[in-house]
Amino acid sequence: MPYTDQPTPELVDSWSAADGAARASSTFTEVFGERPDGVWFAPGRVNLIGEHTDYNGGLALPIALPHRTFAAFRRRDDDVVRLVSGRESTPWEGRLADVAPGAVEGWAAYVVGVAWALQQAGQPVTGFDAAVESCVPYGAGLSSSAALEGSIAVPLAEHPDWVGSGVDTDEARALLVEACIRAENEIAGANTGGMDQSASLRCREGHALLLDCRNGSVEHLPFDLPAAGLELLVIDTRAPHAHADGQYAQRRATCEAAAASLGVETLREIDLADLDVTLPRLEDDVARARVRHVVTEIDRVRGFVALLSAGKVREVGPLMDASHTSLRDDYEVSCAELDLAVEAARAAGALGARMTGGGFGGSAIALIEAGQGHAVSTAVVQAFHDAGHAEPAFLIATPGGPAGRAG
Ligand code: GLA
């Protein structure tokens, strides 16, 4: 049934560094009764293209969002960690010595997991108090967990006895990425691939990050949509991530098994040109479809990058559409809400649209003409309403900078 009044799409604003710092700082002072050493932040991300390629040694192309997580942080002399978050009703308190795989539950695992991984890497880590506030939509597939990890990794790395080159070289950032990945894989128990942490810690403002997951190398590509008269609209479907963890782990396991049976280290080693002879070597249809997605998706990243480099960003839409189709049909990680979001956005004039992130709910992105955000999001809200889905939320993605210090 159509709305009787025009729906008003909900736009999720980002906080300025000063605002985020003030919020985290005031929570800290309220709870712990003293001032933090400072406030640090790390952004969420959207991936432009290159989905489910990171754990296959492939290519991905994320941008950091202006939406960030802020952590007011104070180092302690002992090994106690005390955590509060504006988003979580339960504070956490424990000792670093007790952090181990399987020992910490819930959101705290992402925080103390980073400290644990840095300790394992031989860095000087002590206990700390932290208060976290965030405007990264939660559970929206926009990497709120990597933002949380990054916002703690950077202040931990500002320890006076830190081994290595501080926190501002890309080499140092790559080490922090490794620690955040270990935190997520080993302490939080989510076997994700590393794109999110790389985006949050290594992106550059105004640029997309071309991440080569074969060796962790990065390239920063100027990504100036306004110059092309365009905008990137993010549609948070608010669909529940049903079975997301189990399904993600299953996709990863299928890819690893396929690579092993094809005798390659990762699916990255398979050339698109050889796909026709490679796929029949796999026994089941499902594995064939998964491999086809990964190999064609890596090629779509190359195509996207070539267009960007040639100043033809207006022409990337069909690659985004093809990516979505492949994720929906071959990789089977989309859902009704994501499919509807991309269809409704395209019908309302988007040049291209696709799900972004792990899938099974979460967010889609749509490349739209500048100034069309309201019209496209209104059309998406209407389509969700007609289909009986919960109301989605929206944000405009501009390429933000990496994790750093806010105050
Ligand atoms: C999630 C994971 C990433 C990546 C994407 C899919 O966001 O955290 O490592 O695998 O899914 O591209």
Structure write-up:
- The protein has 407 residues and is of the alpha+beta class.
- It has 2 domains: 10-221, 2-Layer Sandwich (Ribosomal Protein S5, domain 2), CATH 3.30.230.10; 226-396, GHMP kinase, C-terminal domain (Alpha-Beta Plaits, 2-Layer Sandwich), CATH 3.30.70.890.
- Helix content is 39%, strand content 21%.
- The chain contains 11 helices and 14 strands.
- It has helices spanning 17-32, 108-120, 144-157, 170-187, 195-202, 244-262, 275-278, 285-309, 317-329, 336-347, 373-387; strands at 10-11, 38-47, 59-60, 62-75, 80-85, 88-95, 128-134, 207-212, 217-222, 230-236, 352-356, 363-369, 393-396, 404-405.
- The chain has a 6-stranded mixed sheet. Strands 1-13-10-12-11 form a 5-stranded mixed sheet. It has a 3-stranded antiparallel sheet with strand order 3-8-9, with helices on both faces.
- The mean pLDDT is 96.
- It binds alpha-D-galactopyranose.
